[in-house]
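Reminder: ligand-aware prediction takes two inputs, not one.
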Amino acid sequence: MKVLVVNCGSSSVKYTLFKMDNEKKIAWGIVECIGLPEAYYKRQSVGAEEKEESVKVRNHTEAVELIIKDLMNKETGSIQSIDEIAVVGHRIVHGGDKFSKSVLVTEEVKEGLKECFSIAPLHNPHHYAGILAVEKMLPGIPSVLVFDTAFHQTIADYAYMYALPYEYYEKAGIRKYGFHGTSHNYVSHRAALMLGKPAEELKMITCHLGNGSSIAAIENGKVVDTSMGFTPLQGVVMGTRCGDIDPAIIPYLINRDKNFADPEALNVLLNKKSGLLGISGLSGDMRTIVKAVSAGNKKAKLAFEMLCYSVKKYISAYFGILNGIDCIVFTAGIGENSPSVREKVCANLQALGIEMDISKNNEPSSEERFVSKDESKVKIMVIPTNEELMIARESKMVLANG
Ligand code: AMP
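Here is what comes back for the chain with adenosine monophosphate:
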């Protein structure tokens, strides 16, 4: 059985084709810079060299069409006939209040997704275009939607509500939704396996630290709280996003600078020019920041410390919310690859029973592993995320359950 996972981002389409008997990747790739002259298509399949070429793709529909034609190429493709694909799993950023779990695509589901356009204008319309393109290119093959927000739907109202007048929730759907749910879900299950206990008997804090970052408090397999909110802007300091700020800064900026009368200018400031990039003035990429810190750059050091402090603050708060935890999990680009961030985040938390083994933490590895001292009450783990595989598994399961 083969499952195709499609991820239509704001300017890219990523895909992975899985063989589900062994959960191995057969082919994978990305069309980047959609709509721009520098658009390119990079792909690889098992046993073949990576290929990259410039392409002309005006929109997400054309990108999906290009990918599927390439997958079905008679000489170089990985599938001979569309019937080899049992189901297509689509990563969907925002399911709003409407979708609390993965669903098979029907006309009604597509209408429901359209209703979520207004709360995720940068993502959901592209996902929708991707779904239509797959339907056109792979007629009769079922599609499943897997939502980034779904895993967080167990959060209680007192945790997901903002203390604004209630009508803003009722009429505009303004509440915390949370994101990266597929990643938090995946690593929490891996962590349970590593600890040899069912997820339903564990309390954990999962830290997805990448370009975008979020922390989740998970009790007995259910999310109790998460750091991202109505949008992925809330929470910890990120690559180019500011994370938590005093909301009164927004009207203050609007009054002070007429450029900010345009909401898009504010969006760009908060989402694209802030975070590590905004503070360091160098880059939103943690590798560049770490190098600059070593070279003695003060603003890079400040940006690094701010990010680590904000993660530590969430961990400490969620430790209290959960009344103790069994483990902390680090995942995604920074969480998996930056020992210095993990060390700084976990430093001086002995009072909470969190004790890192610095030499284990510094050992280079791409495997899932423990980096806490043997005697640490709270286990600290590094677990590479695999959102694509999680989407493939969910799609297979939804298909099996009809
Ligand atoms: P992601 O969004 O999960 O792809 O993560 C991207 C982030 O991970 C970027 O900030 C990268 O700089 C960071 N990253 C990747 N590898 C490393 C590394 N070896 N050390 C520090 N940060 C890394």
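Residues 210-211, 239, 285-287, 290, 332-334, 337-338 surround adenosine monophosphate (CB under 6 Å). The chain has a mean pLDDT of 96. We will return to this case in the review session.
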